[in-house]
Amino acid sequence: MLLTGQSGLGKSTMVNTLFKSKAWQSNLPSLEVPIPQTLELHSVTHVIEEKGLKLKLTVTDTPGFGDQINNDKCWDPILSYINQQYEQYLQEELLITRQRHIPDTRVHCCVYFVPPTGHCLRPLDIEFLQRLCRTVNVVPVIARADSLTIEERDAFRNRIQQDMNTHCIDVYPQKCLDEDINDRILNSKIRKQIPFAVVGADREHLVNGRCVLGRKTKWGVIEVENVAHCEFLLLRDLLIRSHLQDLKDITHNVHYENYRVLRLNESHQ
Ligand code: GDP
Ligand code: MG
């Protein structure tokens, strides 16, 4: 999984939120120091346990883009990282004595953080999203959603969906890849919920005797894993439970395949 978006939207915090959330009761040390600004791509891997199954999850954090005066090509480092992983996999596949199990560092999902402006997608987001969707599975989220009211979140989500439609931004789960009617029913429901409005936190607080992951404010704790507070759980369930295998299949059968064909055509010219 790779997290991307402008800086300050909570990507680095989300890495910790993902690993600290209760699902796998990880006992990672709590971070009491503020997270520094992310200056380069950085991957964190942990083995998490899901219903008795061990799963190796790698989350790659990226520096925020679009902070420069000239943001031309600010997506290049991210896209080239994604392509490098395809290239590595391809080189392994092409070896005559290839390993039975090729180490797979390909990005199976890219979570794109949209700033909670409440207006619409910015031209920079549109351009980046268009490029990303052609290369990798993309799940957009409304970042720092605690800054929007429930009505604002819904209106903003609708607007983003419209913008994505207008600009042919085909995020995951892609309509054209639904395999049957059951897929279509399940995925249509998810498509209506995307982008999820998420809140990230890496600290636990005591709420009515329970220890919860959340953000403490003067008026209470925003609980990350409470569906009444935000949609982090929907995101996590999609990525790590319900659609985990599908994300990997589409990466292999569609995105990697596109890359492979392109590269092999190149080398035959
Ligand atoms: P990054 O630049 O995208 O990696 O963002 P960071 O994770 O470094 O977070 C930047 C600041 O935003 C930190 O002070 C975080 O505590 C704060 N932050 C992270 N997630 C949220 C969120 O969901 N809501 C709010 N209000 N603040 C957040
Ligand atoms: Mg960061």
Automatic annotation (TrEMBL):
One of its GO terms (biological process) is cell division. Pfam families: Septin (PF00735). InterPro entries: G_SEPTIN_dom (IPR030379), P-loop_NTPase (IPR027417), Septin (IPR016491). The keyword Nucleotidyltransferase does not apply. It comes from the Eukaryota. Residues 1-266 form the Septin-type G domain. GO terms for cellular component: midbody; perinuclear region of cytoplasm; septin complex; sperm annulus; spindle. Belongs to the TRAFAC class TrmE-Era-EngA-EngB-Septin-like GTPase superfamily. Septin GTPase family. This is Septin 12. It comes from Jaculus jaculus (Lesser Egyptian jerboa). The gene is Septin12.
